[in-house]
Amino acid sequence: MSVTEFAPAKLNLALHVTGQRPDGYHLLDSLVAFAEVGDRVTLTQAPLSLQITGQFAAGLSPNDNLCLDAARLVGAEVAITLEKNLPVASGIGGGSADAAAVLRGLARMGHPLPPAPERLGADVPVCLHPRPLRMQGVGEILIPLPPLPELHLVLVNPGIAVPTPQVFAALPTKTNPPLPPFPDRPDLARLVDHLHRCRNDLQAPAVALFPPIRDCLDALDAEGALLARMSGSGATCFGIFADVGAAGLAAYRIGTVHDGWWITATKLASAPGAG
Ligand SMILES: C[C@@](CO)(OP(=O)(O)O)[C@H](O)COP(=O)(O)OP(=O)(O)OC[C@H]1O[C@@H](n2ccc(N)nc2=O)[C@H](O)[C@@H]1O
Ligand SMILES: Nc1ncnc2c1ncn2[C@@H]1O[C@H](COP(=O)(O)OP(=O)(O)O)[C@@H](O)[C@H]1O
């Protein structure tokens, strides 16, 4: 029996850092949604192993990987193939998204989801049931959002692996205001307007540490993004565009001048029940 699970890229449409726990982890208030681009895991009943394929396979070790940690957490003997399409350490949940996909796949093969999946990573709970959510605590409090409008996106990564702890450590203030109330069933204009009133508190420290992130944001702005923002702790930035044509053209034009960047035009994955 073989099972395949998609591991969509996680996007922090907004990410407010509102405090810090005594153990050092930060309290977040974040709007999280998922894109149509992502990694893919395939699971087959066999002794535990991992094979990695795809554009970003070279950046990962097949011996030390969150996919293996996920399988071990539920005591599963499984051969895993990971198709690594997303850049590594890039603020779009790569490792956590993959671990969550392995857990979902193993659940389909008869291994119940483990208690406290956040042991694998703070982003694993939100990636377990990918849909638009407000994420609080250190990632374990998940509140569904109303359906979001269709969002045409361009994701841009300058080819720099960003260590998440370094960016959190560079935050000038740990207690920032929480998210404003989310509008009821927003259309594109209202959602963009709302997001402009939100922030990613990790963006300024990440840009200070890794200046090419600013170049990504500037490139998205220059192509007419309705909003350009970094996701998570970076370095991937997303731009929201008016329609599929505008997103495709922006991705193409940015690609013509930034050879080494990872650039993709995509959409927000539609949530179950979204209208
Ligand atoms: C910042 C976020 C926002 O969604 O995304 P990414 O940039 O990783 O995509 C996540 O909270 C990251 O989640 P994840 O990458 O799973 O975090 P973990 O492996 O548990 O933690 C990596 C390190 O990040 C810091 N960390 C993480 C989460 C959190 N709420 N507070 C923290 O301070 C800690 O220094 C921790 O040692
Ligand atoms: N399946 C995986 N995909 C990506 N990174 C992984 C994976 N397993 C372990 N890692 C490790 O986790 C670290 C964080 O990577 P990642 O989860 O992609 O970051 P982010 O959440 O910021 O996108 C990387 O340095 C990488 O070595």
Automatic annotation (TrEMBL):
Short name of one Pfam family: GHMP_kinases_C
| Domain spans labelled GHMP kinase C-terminal | 188-249
Keywords in alphabetical order, please: ATP-binding, Isoprene biosynthesis, Kinase, Nucleotide-binding, Transferase
Q: Which GO terms describe its biological process?
A: isopentenyl diphosphate biosynthetic process, methylerythritol 4-phosphate pathway; terpenoid biosynthetic process
Q: What residues make up the catalytic site?
A: 10, 123
Q: Report the top EC class in one word.
A: transferase
List residues of the GHMP kinase N-terminal domain: 69-114
EC number(s): the record gives 2.7.1.148
**Coiled-coil parts of chain:** none
Q: Which GO terms describe its molecular function?
A: 4-(cytidine 5'-diphospho)-2-C-methyl-D-erythritol kinase activity; ATP binding
Catalyses which reaction(s): 4-CDP-2-C-methyl-D-erythritol + ATP = 4-CDP-2-C-methyl-D-erythritol 2-phosphate + ADP + H(+)
**Which residues participate in ATP binding?**
87-97
Q: Which pathway does the database say it acts in? A: Isoprenoid biosynthesis; isopentenyl diphosphate biosynthesis via DXP pathway; isopentenyl diphosphate from 1-deoxy-D-xylulose 5-phosphate: step 3/6
InterPro entries linked to this entry: GHMP_kinase_C_dom, GHMP_kinase_C_sf, GHMP_kinase_N_dom, IspE, Ribosomal_Su5_D2-typ_SF, Ribsml_uS5_D2-typ_fold_subgr
For this chain, the family text in UniProt reads: Belongs to the GHMP kinase family. IspE subfamily.
Stated role: Catalyzes the phosphorylation of the position 2 hydroxy group of 4-diphosphocytidyl-2C-methyl-D-erythritol.
Put simply, this protein is called: 4-diphosphocytidyl-2-C-methyl-D-erythritol kinase
Which organism's genome codes for this protein? Answer: Paracoccus jeotgali
What gene, per UniProt, encodes this protein? ispE
